Amino acid sequence: MLRVLEGGALATVQDLGRFGYQHLGVPQSGAMDGVALRIANRLVGNEDGAACIEITLGGTAFEVLAPCVLAVTGADLGARLGGMPLPLWTSVRAHAGQRLVFTQRRYGARAYLALAGGLDVPLVLGSRSTYLPGGWGGLEGRALQAGDVLQPVVPPRDLLRLTARRWRVPPTYGRMLRIVLHEGACDVPTSWLMQPWRVAQASNRIGLRLEGQPLHARVQSVDSFGVFPGVIQLPPDGLPIVLMADAQPTGGYPALGAVIQADLPHAAQLLPGDTVQLVPVTAEEALDALRAQRAWLQQPLAEDEALFALAQARG
Amino acid sequence: MPDTIALWRYTLLGETAWLVTCLLPDLALANRFAFALAQALRATHRWSVVLGLRSVTVRFDPLEVTPTEARAAIQHLGARLEPAPEWNGIVHTIPVRYGGEAGPDLETAARALGIAPEQLIALHTSQPWRVLILGFAPGFAYLGPLPAALHLPRRATPRARVPAGSVALANGLTGIYPSELPGGWHLIGRTDHLLFDPHSDPPARLQPGDAVQFVAL
Lengths: 315, 217
Known about the structure:
The structure holds 2 protein chains of 2 kinds.
Chain A: E1 2-6, E2 10-14, H1 34-43, E3 52-56, E4 61-64, E5 68-76, E6 79-81, E7 84-85, E8 91-94, E9 99-102, E10 107-115, E11 149-150, E12 165-166, E13 176-181, H2 190-193, E14 197-199, E15 207-211, E16 225-226, E17 231-233, E18 241-243, E19 250-251, E20 255-259, H3 264-268, E21 275-280, H4 283-297, E22 302-303, H5 305-314
Parallel strand pairs in A: 13-21
Antiparallel strand pairs in A: 1-4, 1-11, 2-3, 3-10, 4-9, 5-8, 5-10, 6-7, 6-9, 12-22, 13-20, 14-15, 14-21, 15-18, 16-19, 17-18, 17-20
Chain B: H1 4-7, E1 8-13, E2 17-22, H2 27-44, E3 48-51, E4 55-59, H3 67-79, E5 91-98, H4 106-113, H5 117-124, E6 129-134, E7 141-144, E8 159-162, E9 166-170, E10 173-176, E11 181-183, E12 186-190, E13 211-216
Parallel strand pairs in B: 5-13
Antiparallel strand pairs in B: 1-2, 2-4, 3-4, 5-12, 6-7, 6-13, 7-10, 8-11, 9-10, 9-12
């Protein structure tokens, strides 16, 4: 059980997303970095799709109210538990009275905090994900703020058994996004497309807006069609928008292409001011990357013996 | 009836989706074909199917079914497809306060169309409009197509906040903002009718294929 001391830049409850309502205009939402969320859950013995706290940039702080097991994955936001650096991609036992703070960004943008037993917030349209623009889902449809208390859905019984489990090879987040170009979307030399793009200030969970030399779309607008996280829109100003978790399910801007699914976690770890490169690949290469990522997700957890011994000693 | 080869265009969107676009020039008919395809796909596959104005976006797991196999399955369903009926029998009557504070763009929109505001209201309430798709935001229904007399491009400068319930038009379509949103359409009126509630089942009151009859208050 955790109490929020500081909400920080942005912390919301997210799971893998809200599926089956996109045809009603409902965004998918869910974790920006779904891979980090899945692994955080596995480390603490949850189902892959349990709700976690998505912490953006940092400044977020919690007080542990009751003994629990937690894990932090994704970005390195300088997490500290009880004054000590918290090992990432590892399940850790936390004791009542300890503080868990996310001090500052070292790399990445979004960290995922999983609590053994999940997070007890109501399901809305089948998901616990927060949809901020709609003001629903997660905790009362809003970002976490001081005073909020988060409890597990089912308190886990054997905390020690869940402690000191480690993900062997954490992902290396890169500043390169592989994309599959959309047939006939825009006339642009690859060298131009591959310029270093800057992530604009107006970027958020809906989309990453990129700044650079504008591209020229063949058409200004099209009849609205179904889009999804990863699709890159090209508005009339020629500056691409990479749609992310909270994106609307239809759009009327031409599609330049789509970030390959395997690279969405990399996109999720970008913040305004970061630079990123778009690299065209074939659909076949995109499938190979997805296959490799799924295989990587199958790897078993490791046990951190030193950490386990420490947890055992502390009871 | 055009043959099925010329009816649809398939473009791959990333490695996980086909964008299937109906090539018929008539938007109303293209939408009915797309809706029929979307319904046929939902009845037979577990894929995510999102209806566009004249298209269907079909998302699949490319490690379960290859893009080529998915396309073949969609083509199979699309081969002997009849367009969905023009109207499914459901009509929603929606009272609207036109003009004034509720519809700040009524006068300018009428002027741009070269008609009087009263004529714009008369045309907007003259017949029920088909719910073509839901998109843009939860429960936002694109209604139409509107007659040429009501065709206006979007506003040059979008508004950062459009009040919930605003009735608006642009690009030959009309719609109702289900919640406060940014928007570039011309606001001609407002309704108090709640169109989306995430805690209801179904959450959206309007569904594609329904009709909406606006009534001036």
